[in-house]
Design brief:
Elements: E1 2-4, H1 21-29, E2 35-37, H2 41-49, E3 54-60, H3 64-67, E4 74-78, E5 91-93, H4 101-115, E6 120-130, E7 133-142, H5 146-155, E8 157-158, H6 161-169, E9 173-176, E10 178-183, E11 195-199, E12 204-208, H7 213-230, E13 233-244, E14 249-255, H8 262-267, E15 276-280, E16 283-287, E17 293-295, E18 300-303, E19 317-321, E20 324-327, E21 333-336, E22 346-349, E23 360-361, E24 367-372, E25 380-383, H9 386-394, E26 397-399, E27 414-416, H10 428-440, E28 444-449, E29 452-453, E30 456-457, H11 460-472, E31 478-479, E32 486-488, H12 501-523, H13 533-551
Parallel strand pairs: 1-9, 2-6, 4-19, 5-11, 7-10, 10-12, 14-24, 24-28
Antiparallel strand pairs: 3-4, 6-7, 6-8, 11-12, 13-14, 13-15, 13-16, 16-17, 17-23, 18-22, 19-22, 20-21, 25-28, 25-32, 26-27, 29-30, 31-32
Length: 552
């Protein structure tokens, strides 16, 4: 629960630490004569339904009464143009080295001024779905993008009387509400790829010249994660689930970028038919004090290509972006789920997709799984050292996906994204310490390679089968020959040959790549993301040990 935004005038001076020129510029825009408030979800649906850039399909929405939608609500489709993913190059975070606050404040003032000629819609939601953590968020979005506004209110929890009650029961934080200003029609010659401007300390963002709905979702989460981080929580871009084994429970988190298999791993049922509770597949936080976890969103935002046209999951689609529409054999307008029109067709799905969905898990986490696409690693590796577990989290190796508008990069190139979270708005070293503490408290750590190993694809069946063995304590790990404190799980079809020097050299090269990444983090942005010396030392020692084994 945030506490500012409803202070008495006499208390204004007490809140000055929560104000900035960026924050005041954005929040002021919410109160203009050109702003229309969205009272409820039904209103937002009807607004989107009538928008010129929306296609109303003949696919009915399930659980309309539970969601607060009209009984005859249909799945709505809106499509963007050339760009259909997030644009990392557009992000600017105030407070980081090289980011001139005064320059961007001027850009923002001009953007808000010119935007006053347009109608904007104001939607309100809560982020954080438990009494442990709940903050209020505001979105101001330009007319013409009603489906994105509706999707945002579906993706997060619209501010209903029930949400208000939860929000008021959560701890009061010395924070302001989250404010996001968005005008996709904005343009500026200095920002051909748009501008996503963040002042995370003051809980405010401006998303300019960017149409993709995912920009609004991740902007909101960027601010919410930063708020949670400042208030005693570990910010997590990943999936969380819990297995009920009868005599005990097993709670696990899977961290990976979009397209890594994170949602597949999180939403899958147990092959052994153990009851499963799903917290979320994308965004949650862990209390540093109690270890309990809270989901930040009620809905899911996933790729449509994962679901064939006959999939029952389509019954739970609410809005869809960047997909085709066609007529079925009865003349109904239906969606083309495959990525034919473009890559990264996306849908907002309701929480009712998973009947075993929960918003809060009081039990402490048992295991973390880093999802990677590093072909030097077998399908499943266990790390038996808290420091090393954190180091591999810092150097989580994977590949970009079509969820991102990648400029000047190869999608097949192996990249490293610390803790699979490109939305961090505070120094990386702070995340390093919070995750290290998790592992020091006894949380187990595994690496799941969901890419290729020895030229063979690691299938979801391999990964999910291995997880089932791990949660039951039946996984027979063996020593990972060249590196102490690592073990791997033998899996049929993916043999590991430590006598193969070519393979050992590949492992060594991946470690060298990780060390180079760590060193790069220590020097870029004037050392803003520098890591403790122990991180370098861990990786250097691994490389030296492996070099010695190769020399023997």
């Amino acid at each position: 629960m945030t506490t500012v935004g409803k202070f008495a005038l006499a208390d204004l001076e007490k809140t000055n630490h929560l104000l900035s020129n960026i924050k005041v510029t954005v929040e002021s825009a919410f109160y203009g004569n050109n702003v229309k408030m969205i009272p409820d979800l039904a209103f937002a649906y009807n607004l989107a339904k009538q928008s010129p850039n929306v296609t109303v399909t003949d696919l009915p929405v399930a659980h309309t009464e539970d969601l607060g939608l009209p009984a005859d609500a249909r799945v709505l489709v809106s499509n963007d143009g050339k760009v259909f993913g997030r644009t990392a190059q557009a992000r600017r975070i105030l407070g980081q080295p090289g980011i001139d606050n005064n320059y961007y404040a001027g850009i923002l003032r001009e953007a808000v001024f010119t935007g006053q000629k347009k109608t904007f819609y104001h939607g309100q939601a809560v982020v954080g779905l438990s009494k442990d953590f709940s903050v209020k968020a505001h979105l101001l979005l330009a007319e013409g993008y009603e489906n994105n506004l509706y999707s945002w209110l579906l993706n997060f929890q619209i501010f209903t009387p029930e949400a208000k009650e939860l929000y008021e029961q959560s701890p009061a934080l010395n924070e302001d509400d989250l404010y996001i200003y968005a005008n996709p029609d904005w343009s500026h010659p200095d920002f051909p790829n748009g501008l996503a401007l963040f002042d995370p300390v003051h809980n405010v963002a401006a998303i300019l010249g960017l149409r993709y709905f995912g920009e609004l979702k991740k902007a909101t989460l960027t601010l919410a994660w930063a708020t949670a981080h400042r208030n005693g929580f570990v910010a997590c871009h990943g999936g969380m689930k819990q297995y009920d084994l009868g005599d005990k429970k097993f709670t696990m988190a899977a961290f990976g970028l979009s397209g890594s298999g994170k949602s597949t791993i999180t939403l899958a049922e147990s092959k052994q038919d153990f009851p499963v509770k799903i917290l979320h597949d994308d965004a949650f936080i862990i209390s540093e004090k109690t270890g309990a976890t809270t989901a930040l969103e009620p809905s899911y935002f996933d790729k449509t290509q994962d679901y064939p046209a006959t999939s029952s999951a389509i019954d739970y689609f609410l809005t869809v972006q960047n997909v085709g529409v066609t007529l079925d054999d009865t003349g109904r307008k239906v969606i083309v789920t495959e990525d034919i029109r473009n890559g990264n067709g996306r849908t907002v799905k309701s929480r009712y997709l998973t009947p075993n969905r929960v918003d809060f898990l009081p039990e402490k986490i048992d295991a973390v799984f880093w999802i990677m696409k590093d072909d030097a690693l077998p399908p499943v590796v266990k790390i038996n050292d808290p420091d090393l577990a954190t180091v591999f989290g810092v150097t989580l190796a994977t590949k970009r996906s079509t969820a991102e508008n990648v400029i000047g990069q190869n999608l097949d190139q192996l990249v490293m994204e610390p803790f699979a979270n490109p939305f961090r708005s505070y120094p990386l070293g702070e995340d390093y310490q919070t995750f290290k503490e998790l592992f020091a408290q006894g949380v187990d750590c595994y690496i799941l390679n969901t890419g290729f190993f020895n030229g063979n694809k690691v299938t979801p069946q391999h990964t999910l089968g291995a997880i089932d063995l791990i949660i039951q304590g039946k996984a027979d790990f063996v020593d990972f020959g060249p590196i102490e404190k690592l073990e791997y799980l033998p899996i049929e079809g993916h043999p590991v040959d430590f006598s193969d020097k070519e393979y050992l050299n590949k492992i060594k090269q991946r470690l060298v790549d990780r060390l180079a990444f760590i060193n790069e983090k220590s020097t870029e942005k004037e050392g803003y993301d520098a890591l403790p010396k122990e991180v370098n030392e861990q990786m250097e020692n691994l490389i030296l040990d492996l070099a010695q084994k190769l020399a023997d």
